[in-house]
Every structure is written in structure tokens, then in C-alpha cells.
Amino acid sequence: MKRFFFIFLTFLIATQALHAQTEVKGSVYDAGKQPMAGCSVWFLQADSIVAGCLTDEEGRFTLKGLAAGSYLCRVTMLGYKAAEQTFSLQQKVRLSAFTLQEDPTLLKEVTVTGDRRDVVKTAAGSMTYYLSERAKQSRTAYEALREIPKLQVDPVMNTIKMNGTSVLILIDGVKRPNYLQVLDPAMIESVEVVESPSARYMGAENVTQILNIHINRAKVRPYVNVNGWGRQSLNTNFGVYNVGAEIGNATSSLYLTTQQFYFKNDQTENSQHSVSGDLWQERYNNRSYNSHSYYVGLGGDRIFSDRHYGSFSLTYIANPMNSDYKKWGRVGYLSDGSSSDMTGWQQDESTFHSANAYLYYKYTIAPRHTLELTGNYAFSSSGSQNESNEVNDFFSNYGYMKTDNRRHSAQLDVDYTKVFNNRYVLTAGSNTSFAATNLDNLADNLPIFDYDRWQEYLYVGFNNNSSADKFKYNFSVGMDMRVFRLNGIKRHYVEWVPAASLAYTFNQTHSLALNYNHQRSEPSLATLNPHNMSTDSLYIQVGNPNLTPGRWDRIRLAYRLNYKKLFVEPFVQETFYWNLVTAVGSVEDNIYTNTYVNTGSFHVLNAGISINYNLPFGNLYGSSYFQKRYDKEMVFTPNNGAWVTNFSANFFYKQFSLNVNVGGQTATYDRNSKSKGAAWSNASLSWNLPKGWQVSVVGEGFIYPKLSYKTWVQQENYQSYGTRLMKDRNLRFLVGVTYTFRNKAERKQRQQKRFNSTDTEIQGM
Question: Rounded CA gap, 636 and 634, in Å?
Fold first, then answer.
């Protein structure tokens, strides 16, 4: 790996030396000759935007790497008239100073000729995208974000995933839970997609992907944003409803969001065929599932002065659910060929409550020199009661379990950032956290399972993402110190957590990116708990309190082509896993016991491509990659490779819009198991009505109407094959209604606060 890094760096340095570098410089002032920070600077050819940048604290801008030719440079700022200059570029050009005059019409926003979606900004570890003017007129932020490549936005639940997995969502680099529910899309300045976070985000939360949304706060008159939406299935088995409101002005905001969803009599058919020692079983069941979830969130922020900024959020979640199973099947013995019919039932009930509080403070010591403090406290409790019974001619299988689980956690983050010469960024900080978990199995006399964790995480990083250099880098390293206490037994671990990202932009069209991350994989509570959590007397499920954290190293190389409306990114990625927690099983007296050990050491190769094309009336995005696991202990070999494919399309015409999403994975593999799921698909057709109303129809499962799953497990003296068919989540149609209100009071320009100049992008920091 060191050799690979050396070759890559040598290549970049040599390439930079061999190519003449063009450079455009300039400065922007207001009518009072004061420098203007945060102005948008656009470079156009034939009325099309080919590049863009922002002015710094001194009102200056620099752009390198433009192709030689004639350009129009346009400078815009909300509340000011645009200024323009034409120039011819060969090598280096310094433009005359721009002077922006206030717009007497007050904040009638300047419309820039060209499509901002075609401007993609590359940094080491991240990429920044811009929304179209059409997207900014969307009724919700989720609807607007559909046109950002790599994001998968669920049109039913309004959730966001990236590359198929969950993503940390930040607003101007700050956690503001559920704020997207009330955010006015017109306020979105840019969207930063971070696929390789620095060590700063690898503490207690172990973040692997970040979506950072920068908003424009240039308004002083009070504003009100109200948003309400609902999705209801035609068979009334499912519904989700959300209401949110925000009030604010140039310095303060306060928002409240509420959400409720439910499943009613959701039907699932399950089957399992297994052989455990001498005993074979064919089991079938129908499950009826009921669930309700309630969410309430309160948050806000305030700019106290140019130097002081704070925000807070409070959230509460409640989720009661229950399931009823009707069981039947056959059991028998291989040795004598005897068998018997089996009947049974099962009832599961559970409740979950969670309360979280965040408090954030940012102190701007000097321009581009900040200190951030983040505090978090969370409490959660869950209880469950499970009872099952199965009867056949050979034995009766009855089980009962009742548990109570409580968890307290607290965290304090201290983050320091210093920008030198508007080029280099130094970051350093600490993450201190504590969590205490108590799991009590009330149905037996076993002692309470106590699990406490103390963690001190220190990090430091350095990057030049704020520069206009073609070659950008982001290096960081963290030191993770953890102490665990499990049932009175203490263990401690110390581990280094390095991360590195490199990006080289040849010109506005071509760039290369190389990323490396080291992460830890901490055992979950379920894998550590030594108590049996199964109500089936023929199947025992216990954890292993002696488990240790696993780890993995990932390296990713990508080439990026951004040509006008087309963005293409082929990539190759290798991930090495060490000492991961792995499920293992054994059979004794025909009873199968499943537990966990640290034996997972293997590597996975991913290779694929993603493509985005911007249309005048929408955009198309698709990605596909091949994934193969190399593991000597794999049971399902040699065919353990899989294709993962995702496709989305967004179209709009006048007041109508259509969003289509399709995706699937041919198979997933673990050491002793294999799973297959059906392709998923959804489509949403929306019609914008007057006075803030929108109606929509959502269809799910139209590509593959049977939402089914298959699983194979094979271990010594045990093997099984199971299926699951979600009957009520197959081809399903929902009706949606959305209402938005934005007050019509004109907005007045204010001088931007200094702290805003440093939180435009986190740039992988």
C-alpha cells in the first residue's frame, strides 16, 4: 500500500509540473470600497457556465485550470446587481476590481444564465453539487435533493441513503436532527457529499458517509416555513404523516417537527427447512404485524454576534409494536424416518422510547479560526415480551421471555479549526463519551447484564481543500482509547485511526481521487449478551462477552469526468477486514446453539461505475458495481460474487414531476450464510397545485411485485433454508398530500456574519 501511495503521488507531482497552469484572479468590493466575502463568481462561455468559485474574507478569488479562451466573468451576490467583465485567457490574468451596487428592488434574486447543476466542485474526500432553480422551487428539501447524484431519497418515508446505506446529515457542518423536514429548498446554497470523512468523524459514531447541506442565511425580516405531508396506502394498512414549522430571521430560528407512521395487520408468510443433527423440521408461519411510531423534535439556532453562534435540538421517539404468528409444519428424525405434524403459535410485544438532547456552540476566535463545542445526552429504554408454543407427537416446545433494557449515554466534542493563508486548514479535537447499558431478563433469575463503555478519542488533521490548487489532500489521524466493563470485568483498547484523501484536478473535465480509511467495528450488545435470547428450546441464541473490536482498511481509487451535463465516475475499491465478529454454531442433542467469535478476516473487492446526466427537464442517475468476497473459510464458494445496481430518474414538466427509483443486489454473503432479496422499485408522480398544495401518487414494487427474501445457512451438523414474503408490501399504491407555506414578506440583504464564511463546506474535514 505504501508503494501504491508513492507511485500515485509521484504521478500527480510529475503531471502538475508538465502542464502549464492557467490562473484568473480578481477582487470584489461594495460601493463603500469594503471587500465582499461569499460572492459567487461564474465563468461563462456561450451562455453556459464552465466554472465557478467564491470570494474569500478579503473579497478576493482565484481560479486555476481553466482552458485557454475567451470568457465572461459574472459576479453575483444576493441583494446586489450583478457585475460582468469579458477577458481572454492564455496563462495568467488579473481582472479589474468588481464593484457591486445594491439592488433597489431588494433581494429579487439574480438569475444566472446556465445550469448550476453542471458545476461540480472536487475536494480531497468530498464533492460539492448545486441545485437547479427548479429544484429550489420544490415543496420540500427531500424533493429538491433527488437531483443530487448518489443520493437515494425514499418518496414515502422521506429518508435519505447514499450508496445504499445510512448517511450523517449536517446543516452547515452542524447536527440539526430532522431539520430537513422544515428547510425551505430555496435556502440551499450547495450540497456536499463526503464519501471519505476525515478522522474527525471517526470517534464514538464511526461515521463513514456525510451529507453536508449549506444554506443561505441572507435575510433579516422574520420568516415562517410550514410543511405538512402524508402518505396513505390504498388498503389502509400503512400511513405516514409529518407536520413541521419554522420561524426565524437573520439571527435566530426555531423549528418543531412531528411525525407518526403505522403498520396495521401487515401480513408476512415465512418458511424454514432445517436439519439439526438427527432432527429435521419444515416450519411455516403467517405473521400479523402492528406498529406505531411517534417522533417529536424541537430545535433552533442563534447568531449572537460575528463571533458567537449556537444551536440546540431535543428529540423524542416512541415505538410500540406487536406480532402474532400462526405456525404449522412437520418434524421428524433422519435415523428412523419417523415424522409428525406440528402446530403452534407465537406472540411478541415490545416498546421503545428514546430521548436525545444536543447543544452546539461555535466561537470564531478570528476570521477562519474557530472553536466548536458539542454536547449530547441520550436515554433509551426498551422492553419486550415473547411467548411461543409448538406441539407435535415427539415433544412440546414452549418458551417465554421478558426483557427490560435501559441505556444512558453522554458525549462532549471539542473541535478546533484554523485556516492559514486561505489555503491550508488545520483541525484538532477530542471526543469524550460514556455509555451505560443494563439488560435484565425478567423471566429468569440470571444476573442483570451490565455493559459500560468509556471512550476518549483524539484527532488531528491537515488539508489544503480551501486552496485553488489542482492537487488537494486531506491527511488526518485519530487515537482511540476505550475501556469496557462487562459484568464487572474490565478491558481496554488503544488504536490509531488514520485517514487520507488525495484529489488531482487536471482541468474542469478530468480529475482523480484516492481515499484511504481505517475503521473499527465494535461488537453490538446482542453479540455480547451471554443470556439466551431465543424462546425456541431447539434453537439457542447467546452472545459472547469476550468479543473484541474488529477493524477494516479501505482504499478507493476513482476517475471523474465532468463534461457539461455529464458526470461519470468509474472506481475500484478494496476493503480488508480483520478480526470481525462472526456467527458460529454447534449441535448437541439435536439442539442448535448459535454464538459469535472474532474470526472474520477477509477482503472484498468492489469495481463499478456511476453516471449522472442533467436533462433540461430533469436528470438521470445510475450506478452498478461488482462485489466479490475473498475468504478461505467461505461456505458458498466459488460463486460468491454479486452485482449491486441502482437507477433513478427525475422529470418535470410545468407543475408535474415524476421520480423513479430502482435497485437491487443479486446476493449477499457471510462466512456461513447467503441471502437473496427481490429488486426494489418505487415511483412518485406529483402535481403542484396553487396556494402551496401538492398531490401525489406513489407506487412501490412495480418492477418486481413480490417482495421476498431467501436465506441459506450451512454449518457443521446444521443447515437451513428460509423464505420470507411480505404480502402487504408487494405492489402497493399510496396517495400523498403535501402543503407548504412560505411567508411572502420580502427579504432584505444583510452583511453576512463572519462565521458563515468558514462553514460553507466541511470538505471532508
Answer: 6
Q: Which three cell numbers stand for residue 522?
A: 465494535
Do strands 369-391 and 160-162 pair parallel, antiparallel, or not at all (unpaired)?
unpaired
DSSP string, 603-654: EEEEEEEEEEEEETTEEEEEEEEEEEEE-TT-SS-S--EEEEEEEEEEEEET
How far is the C-alpha of 614 from the C-alpha of 201, rounded, in Å? 32
CA distance 685 to 661: 12
Spatial distance between the Cα atoms of 728 and 266, rounded to a whole number of angstroms: 6
Grid look-up 495568467 returns: 92
pLDDT in tens, 653-684: 999 999 999 999 999 988 899 999 888 899 99
Distance between CA atoms of 345 and 347, rounded to whole angstroms?
A: 7
Q: Which residues, at least 6 apart from 186, have a Cβ–Cβ distance to it below 8 Å? A: 136, 137, 742
What average pLDDT does the segment 220-235 reach? Answer: 89
pTM exceeding the 0.90 threshold for the entire prediction: no
- Beta-sheet strands, E only, within 487-590: 489-505, 510-521, 539-541, 550-563, 566-588
**Identity of residue 74:** R
CA dist 99 and 88 (Å) reads: 20
The one-character DSSP state at 533 is -
pLDDT recorded at residue 205? 79
Per the CB < 8 A criterion, the answer to whether 488 and 543 are in contact is no
Please tell me whether residue 743 adopts helix, strand or coil conformation.
coil
**Is residue 537 classed exposed, middle or buried when 0-12, 13-18 and 19+ CB atoms within 10 A define those classes?**
middle
